[in-house]
Amino acid sequence: MPRSSSSTDIVATMLRDLIAAEALAGALAATAPLTVAAAGGAQALVAQRGRPTGAWFWSISPVPDSLWESMADEHQRPHRSNPGDDEPA
User: Fold this and answer.
1) What pLDDT was estimated at residue 84?
2) End-to-end CA distance of the chain
3) pLDDT tens, 33-47?
4) Distance (Å, rounded) from C-alpha 43 to C-alpha 47?
5) Which residues contact 28 (CB under 8 A, 6 or more apart)?
6) Measured at the alpha carbon of residue 49, what is the angle toward residues 43 and 55, in degrees to the nearest 5?
7) Per residue in 1-38, pLDDT tens?
């Protein structure tokens, strides 16, 4: 079987990275759409902070803790038994 050319390998890597970056953007938007939109949108976050991990997927870093906390809060809000802001009296 003929060996892939260097240019074919580069194209395959670029395509794999584009698919992984798009998957990351989709997951971010689905996880916390309001927070991600307020931060500029999923595509912008991936474009500005996205990096390949070496394991064929992408991650975003560095991201301020406040953004992660807001995303987690938005994502978990529907699952809380008491989503209100009430302290025990």
Assistant:
1) 63
2) 74
3) 999 999 999 999 999
4) 6
5) 36, 42, 45, 46, 60, 71
6) 95
7) 555 678 888 898 889 888 989 999 999 999 999 999 99
Judge contact between 60 and 24, C-beta under 8 A: yes
Q: Phi and psi of 39, rounded to 5°? A: -85, 5
Q: What is the DSSP string of 6-62?
A: HHHHHHHHHHHHHHHHHHHHHHHHHH-HHHHHHTT-HHHHHHHHEEE-SSS-EEE-S
Q: Which tokens go with 83?
A: 């989503």
Report the alpha-carbon distance of residue 59 to residue 24 in Å, rounded.
7
How far apart are alpha carbons 80 and 73 in whole angstroms?
A: 10
Residues 6 or more apart whose CB falls under 8 angstroms from that of 83 comprise 77
